[in-house]
Amino acid sequence: MFETNKGINHIALVCRDMKQTVDFYTGVLGMPLVKTVQLPDGGQHFFFDCGGGASVAFFWWKDAPAMAPGIASVKNFPYDSKTAVGSMNHIAFNMDEADLEAALDKLESAGVPHTHAVVNHDDSHAGVARDVHEGVFVRSVYFTDPNGIMMEFAAFTRKFTPEDVRHEPATMDA
């Protein structure tokens, strides 16, 4: 038997411009470029260290299919964030809560599209709260990279308990 709960090794995404992607992930997000691969088909595969032993990797091909917002990526967060089955909606990077405001400032100064406030997620009907209260379980900053990929800096504000699992999973048969 093997253990599958050792965390994520890497997530692999596709970019439209590897140079822009390298500049963004190393310069804006401060993720070191740790491995580059030139693919036999002319493409590239680059890995960035995102902490905790995990990486964010990108493929690039000159002839990759075009972006498909609203299908393979978020169209307009938070108003239209539904994506297709099998797509990646967004990736969230763990961050200390105390660093969220500084992250907003850094994204702003770099001209990166982002939420202009920290989002407080709670269990209310709206799912978000204007102010931090004991029901807020994660605080987030959302932004997009140069490829239109939605990203999130996320800080859990409390440990989850069995009471946090209280919804039945939905099914198409219902």
UniProtKB/TrEMBL annotation:
<feature type="domain" description="VOC">
    <location>
        <begin position="7"/>
        <end position="156"/>
    </location>
</feature>
<dbReference type="InterPro" id="IPR037523">
    <property type="entry name" value="VOC_core"/>
</dbReference>
<dbReference type="Pfam" id="PF00903">
    <property type="entry name" value="Glyoxalase"/>
</dbReference>
<dbReference type="InterPro" id="IPR029068">
    <property type="entry name" value="Glyas_Bleomycin-R_OHBP_Dase"/>
</dbReference>
<protein>
    <submittedName>
        <fullName>VOC family protein</fullName>
    </submittedName>
</protein>
<dbReference type="InterPro" id="IPR004360">
    <property type="entry name" value="Glyas_Fos-R_dOase_dom"/>
</dbReference>
<dbReference type="InterPro" id="IPR050383">
    <property type="entry name" value="GlyoxalaseI/FosfomycinResist"/>
</dbReference>
